[in-house]
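Researcher: Please predict.
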Amino acid sequence: MVWKVNHSTKQTADRFEITMDEVELPNGEQKRFSYVDFAKGVCILPINQNKKVLCIKQYRHSLKSWQWELPAGMIDPEDASPKEAAKRELEEETGYRAEHWLELGSVYPSPGSTSEEIFLYAAAGLTPTQQKLDSSEQLELYEISMEELKEMIVSGEFNHGAGLAAILRYKFTTD
């Protein structure tokens, strides 16, 4: 049964919108429930001709540390589709375009606190172009073998949620 929303307010904080709902639960209890309304996003597993994954190590201010990740980003209003956003993000963050794309579905990384949905892709047939980073993007690009990436995941060195989902979906799709 769906919760009944009796009243809803929204507040904007920088690039986030916070929704605060006064809801009635199926048992009749009244509760306040808040969540972050966040733009949909994409995450790409780029695999080069040497079967290595293009990974990035990016500074993440919210964690005050450098994090291993796959290329990812928000779907902009001018993007015609999630796949077009993935193509744009891949080129912006890595400086590569891909000839072949495999859709891997989507995930909700934290449905208890955000409405965010991330569309996952694998990309191959990579050709170099020009990296186009935003001023706030501080990252380094690496080529990592699947075996090395597996070791980084097992050791807890690679913790990027959308990246983990893309790798898992890719492995289950291609095995």
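Model: The chain is about 20% helix and 45% strand.
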